[in-house]
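ligand=pyridoxal-5'-phosphate
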Amino acid sequence: MSTTMGDGTRAVRAGLPEPEQYEPTLPGPVFAAHFHLSGEPVGPYTYGRDTNPTWTRLERAISELEAPGETAETTVFASGMAAITAVLLSQTRTGDAVVLPDDGYQALPLVREQLEAYGVEVRTAPTAGDAQLALLEGAKLLWIETPSNPGLDVCDVRRLVEAAHGAGALVAVDNTLATPIGQRPLELGADFSVASDTKGMTGHGDILLGHVTCRDPGLTAAVRRWRKVVGAIPGPMEAWLAHRSLSTLQLRIDRQCTTALTLAEALGKRAEVSGLRYPGLPDDPSYPKAVRQMRRFGSVVSFVLADRETAERFLAGLRLVDDATSFGGVRSTAERRARWGGDAVPEGFIRFSVGAEDPEDLLADVERALDEASR
Ligand SMILES: *Cc1c(COP(=O)(O)O)cnc(C)c1O
């Protein structure tokens, strides 16, 4: 699709087949463990763990969003973690070194243990200050998560990519928080754009899914081979629902990002709120980097309340915001992140995911719950 097209237009048309008389615009899910196949076993669709036409359409759609006007290929997975481990485990061998963030997604320490069990050296540094730069010598792969989750720090992707490529390392970016309409890692030079599509990408809190997008056909082949070997494949129904959800990606994310900024501004005026973070706030430490590489700043706002009890009272007092983990959905959610353990955050730390509610309703609910919690 053309690069000059707007994000909303691209989202509603992404991955659609050429119009065919009497066929639906987005053909329904193809449920098939195997396909009719006589003679030599070649062709696009042979066995359901290798390929499926519903995945193909979704993969084309995601590629158009991740790399408009370029040739890139996407591989979809059963979850974000399936996509993440497909890159890390297909690209590394015993004796290789990998650089991870030490403040990224909470399952990365488990991935680290697995990599180390296979004899891969794992080095970690914070996202902020581009601290991973110092660990690149001799590394095989640099893994970046920006904005980081849940701390919302941002690193300079172009700068890290340049240094990593100079050191002979590949670069993967976890783009879950931004989604491809918020940030396009391949355009910033990364080799892999990876995401959990469980979050903002599908946006309804009802599917688990993940993807990997690459420009290099060799890297795509390795990732596809990994999917085939491990079998971490999405169901056709999930893939179809995800594709259907992409048509509203720009509408949802625009609304959520605009309200997130409004909420962050309102929270900034509250005396009981400290440690407020939103990459789109001009005085946020992430802003100078975010503004150079992001096109939208995401739907997640984080802040700290006095203590665990105040945070719990705040969450219990919210009526329009569900106390739940995950983020990026059309219904706002918030949680006290320290309840999970593992993240280096204070007891009163709240990760707030802004949904598509009317901003006035959401702000009124938050202000009231804050008043009540601090009383
Ligand atoms: C949720 C999340 C993941 C894991 O995705 P699943 O779909 O739950 O497997 C990975 N990275 C980030 C940044 C996430 O938020």
